[in-house]
Write a structure and sequence with these properties.
heterodimer, A: 307 residues, mainly alpha, MetI-like fold, 11 helices, disordered N terminus, B: 285 residues, alpha/beta, Rossmann fold, 2 domains, 6-stranded mixed beta sheet, 35% helix, globular
């Protein structure tokens, strides 16, 4: 059992006897260990950044870019900036950015759910009809070759007037986010739906199962590992889609507003933009983590088969 | 049980399986896989299909199960068309691999056909408990397939096939992927289950010894095109057990089957003793 491979001999034998009933300790210890490892890697990256900066400034490295306070602020300055007032007598930068992140997260979450649902339904439709698959798949691929920045303004123009008051503005952004989300979900789920063992299909047919039953009892569960690896790609993409969608919508309350704003003031205060990037990245990671957790809870598979 | 042998010979009522003039041609390469097969299997019989790779024995089994269609001729199960029999859930099937659903534990794997047949939860649970007892998997109900050995997985697969008490059991080399020890133990268990349930079994195998040990009749097939080379009635006493393998008739029947295999396949050498599964190189197909 790979999941308990590193555990104590006692833990491993308990897993063999207890089977699928995993003790609390067994799931908590590896989780803590991997969290610790991630923290260690982050620390190493910070040290590398600071070391490069120190060497670059001392020996005046000019390639690929000159190293100085403007191009590479100190890590502690970026983090420290979060706890400075965002403007004279204003709230702390972190409060401003967290508000923006929550605003963007709402768009991204709605976009993610919408895109994932649409992607899943497209995959089911295409897997059930070879004709649909041959006709539509090229256009689904083509949809992603059009730059999102070129589509976003049109979506805003089309969608916004039709939205109720409560969705005005950010609803269009959610649609743009969904546009980036549906694609990996549709492609991977289609693959997953087709991954079912042919004999497992024969088995269900031997029970006089309908096409519908074969879909729900076999093809859909068989597609879950594929679906979840797609959702892991789609979750951070939904955040990126939301941020990009905010630009043509002239939405100032989200992370895009903050990014544009601090971009303008980059020469006077580089750490502010870096701090914004940290928060934006954190949001993407949070989305990813929620999906990964959902996978742990929902997908019961041989450890070696978990994508 | 007064002996399945006598049951096999009682010819009243509809045949469990009746195959008439059946041929199967695969379009790709225009291969004639089965050539005018005629075969009747009577209720309660244990019939093995044996032959080299490519003789179409698995194809024949799938046609009986209405999983593929014949090119010519008919297959009937319990007096109805194979299709109707499938719709009525008249047979259970076991493959070489257990084909368990990874996301279902042992209980829910065994219960799959019962769900499909629309049994309510209470009845389902009761039957699953009986099945777990029958295949001796008590204590492993909540295990998932990847936590079981190959032999245990195949026992789950057999329990699943038997769960809805089908009159006919179709088995496609069910023990082919298991080691010799496990295989012999499961052979004994299968015979026990067969005598307890009184079902009809059609069993595809590569192993001469296995076919003789288990069956009331062994149907020997030749390859390309698949034809019935001969049928050997196995007169070994019931119930069978480890001592059956030492019965003088056992060796005799093995010789009969091997001779038929050789005749049906005169151009290819067949070697090995009784314990070695027949191996014939697969070409072309």
């Amino acid at each position: 059992m790979a999941s308990s491979g590193g555990a104590s001999p006692g833990g491993a034998s308990a897993a063999a006897i207890g089977g699928s009933v995993r003790s609390r300790r067994e799931s908590v210890v590896p989780a803590l260990r991997s969290a610790g490892l991630s923290a260690l890697v982050l620390a190493v990256l910070c040290v590398v950044w600071e070391a490069y900066k120190w060497i670059g400034e001392r020996f005046e490295i000019r390639w690929p870019f000159p190293v100085n306070e403007r191009t590479m602020p100190h890590v502690y300055d970026m983090v420290g900036q979060l706890f400075e007032p965002s403007r004279r007598n204003g709230p702390l930068l972190i409060d401003v950015l967290l508000d923006a992140a929550v605003f963007t997260a709402r768009e991204a979450a709605v976009g993610f759910l919408l895109g994932a649902s649409v992607g899943f339904l497209i995959a089911v439709a295409l897997s059930e009809s070879r004709l649909l698959q041959r006709g539509f798949l090229p256009y689904i691929v083509a949809s992603q070759t059009v730059p999102i920045l070129a589509i976003a303004p049109m979506v805003v123009v089309w969608v916004n007037p039709k939205l109720p008051e409560s969705l005005a503005g950010w609803g269009a952004v959610a649609v743009i986010s969904a546009y980036l989300t549906f694609f990996p979900v549709a492609i991977n789920t289609l693959r997953g739906l087709q991954s079912a063992d042919p004999r497992a299909v024969e088995l269900l047919r031997s029970y006089a199962a309908s096409r519908w039953a074969i879909l729900w009892k076999l093809r859909v569960p068989a597609s879950f590992p594929f679906l979840f690896s797609a959702l892991k790609i789609a979750a951070p993409a939904a955040v990126v889609g939301a941020i990009i969608g905010e630009l043509p919508s002239s939405i100032q309350d989200g992370l895009a507003g903050a990014i544009l704003n601090f971009n303008q003031y980059y020469s006077s205060s580089p750490p502010s933009l870096w701090a914004t990037n940290i928060v934006a990245a954190g949001l993407g990671i949070a989305f990813f983590a929620v999906v990964a957790l959902g996978e742990k809870v929902l997908v019961r598979r041989a450890p070696e088969n978990v994508a | 049980m007064s002996g399945a042998g006598s049951r096999a010979r009682s010819r009243d009522g509809a045949a469990a399986v009746s195959i008439k003039g059946l041929s199967k041609r695969f379009q790709r390469g225009d291969v004639l896989a089965l050539d005018t097969i005629d075969l009747d299997v009577h209720p309660g019989e244990f019939v093995s299909l044996i032959g080299p790779s490519g003789c179409g024995k698995s194809t024949l089994l799938r046609i009986i199960g209405d999983l593929i269609e014949p090119s010519e001729g008919t297959a009937q199960v319990n007096g109805k068309s194979a299709h109707q029999a499938r719709m009525d859930r008249d047979y259970g099937i076991v493959f070489q691999d257990a084909v368990l659903y990874d996301w279902r534990n042992v209980t829910r794997n065994i219960g799959l056909p019962l769900e499909m047949a629309g049994w309510d939860k209470g009845r389902r649970e009761e039957r699953i408990r009986e099945m777990v007892e029958l295949v001796e998997l008590a204590g492993f109900e909540k295990h998932h397939p990847w936590q079981l050995s190959g032999g245990m997985q195949q026992r789950v697969s057999i329990a699943r096939a038997l769960s809805f008490s089908p009159a006919l059991l179709l088995m496609d080399e069910p023990f082919g992927a298991l080691d010799e020890m496990t295989r012999e133990r499961l052979n004994n268990e299968l015979l026990q289950i067969w005598s307890e349930t009184g079902s009809t079994v059609v069993f595809v195998t590569h192993s001469i010894a296995e076919s003789v040990f288990l069956s009331t009749r062994v149907v020997v097939m030749s390859a390309r095109p698949g034809r019935i080379a001969g049928i050997v009635e196995i007169d070994l006493p019931q119930p069978r057990g480890p001592e059956t393998r030492e019965h003088p008739l056992f060796a005799e029947h093995i010789t009969q089957v091997r001779r038929l295999l050789r005749e049906g396949h005169a151009d290819e050498a067949i070697e090995g003793d009784t314990e070695v599964p027949l191996y014939v190189a697969e070409e072309g197909l």
